[in-house]
Amino acid sequence: MYGSGRVIPSLIVFVGLMTFAIWYNAGKAQQLPDPEKPAEYEECVRDTQFMRKSHMVLLHEWRDDILRKSGQRTGVTASGLRYDRSLQKGCMNCHDDRKKFCDECHDYAAVTPDCWGCHLEPTKEAR
Amino acid sequence: MKKDRRDFLKLAGVVAAAGIGATSAFQSLLGGEAEAAGLARVGAAKKSTDGTRLGMAIDIRKFADNQELAQRCIEACHSIHNVPDFRNSKDEIKWLWNEKFENVFAKDTHTRQSPALQGLPVLTLCNHCDNPPCVRACPTKATFKKDDGIVGMDYHRCIGCRFCMAACPYGARSFNWRDPRGTDDKGRPFIRELNQKYPSRTRGVVEKCNFCTERLAVGELPACVEVAAPHDAMFFGDLNDPNSKISRVLREKFTIQRRPSLGTYPSVFYII
């Protein structure tokens, strides 16, 4: 191969640099997100697995139902607790710390939902 | 018959042109475009006599006699809905506002309008039209008409194209040119005090009056009506219910609508 003396070492260096992030972090366990759950509540509006995976779908359903179809503004949990079908007035009522709850996973998963451009987080006094 | 390339291309061109022309001409005859322009609906015997259709009546005289009442209504509305004050009329966000009489009710051919009426402040808001042009203009269905007659908005879907603002003949829609949660040069926030029960909007979306749909849902009157009702200056209710307060008021008093000739069927009436 022509110029193999330079090409092959260069390729090795290049691949090494490109995969730096992989082998540098290899073997180190990444810290899993640990969202802080509200202490005084036992259950959420749905089971944990559903909420973990599909809370955004639920929020969209609430939004479309209430805004467009004048749907119910409150819902009832499995054990009969009444809640507001609302991010700001419902979710944040229990999960009152955005940093310790929402951002914990969102940062880990590198997603940036733009909820807080309009919706308000509970203030310090409200908590 | 021998066909050379030149003839073939000519024939293909003619056929293509005919095909394109014929389909578009045919479609406009089908009424699809006429409907999109709202022509079919204008002047048609109306519509929406079943189900709920919420409406409002505003007594112009009561507000003329009590100038400060309108300010209180506006203040109530804007503080509840986190409406920003950009302190600049070009960027102004309005849900409920005072407008001069001659601008609210277009003069058209009436050139002898009483001078006393000129400049008279009239409370204006979204008319929640029965045939809303903004809804037709919206390319993302961010604005829509609900079963109860309210023309609502989903700010999540708004892409800020402002077609609805161009379509609305009442200027009832405002665009957020700036971040409503921001502050001005002197560090004063545009929203004086955030209402924690209601979201704000974000830069780049259009906003307007929502007839206090969130208050109606919990059995309250719209904020402005709540302020004005003790003075009998505003009435609210179901236009399709003959026993509602608004229906009674509309039966008894002389009322007008804004620009009725446009065929938008406003749900806001003005008692003269």
UniProtKB/TrEMBL annotation, chain A:
Keywords: Membrane, Transmembrane, Transmembrane helix. The chain crosses the membrane at residues 7-26. It comes from the Bacteria. This is Cytochrome C. It comes from Desulfurivibrio alkaliphilus.
TrEMBL record, chain B:
Gene3D superfamilies: 3.30.70.20. Pfam families: Fer4_11 (PF13247). One of its GO terms (cellular component) is cell envelope. Its main location: other. CDD domains: PsrB. InterPro entries: 4Fe4S_Fe-S-bd, 4Fe4S_Fe_S_CS, DsrO-like, ET_IronSulfur_Cluster-Binding, TAT_signal, TAT_signal_bac_arc. SUPFAM superfamilies: 4Fe-4S ferredoxins (SSF54862). Residues 149-178 form the 4Fe-4S ferredoxin-type domain. GO terms for molecular function: 4 iron, 4 sulfur cluster binding; metal ion binding. Keywords: 4Fe-4S, Iron, Iron-sulfur, Metal-binding. It is found in: Cell envelope. Heterodimer of a large and a small subunit. This is 4Fe-4S dicluster domain-containing protein.
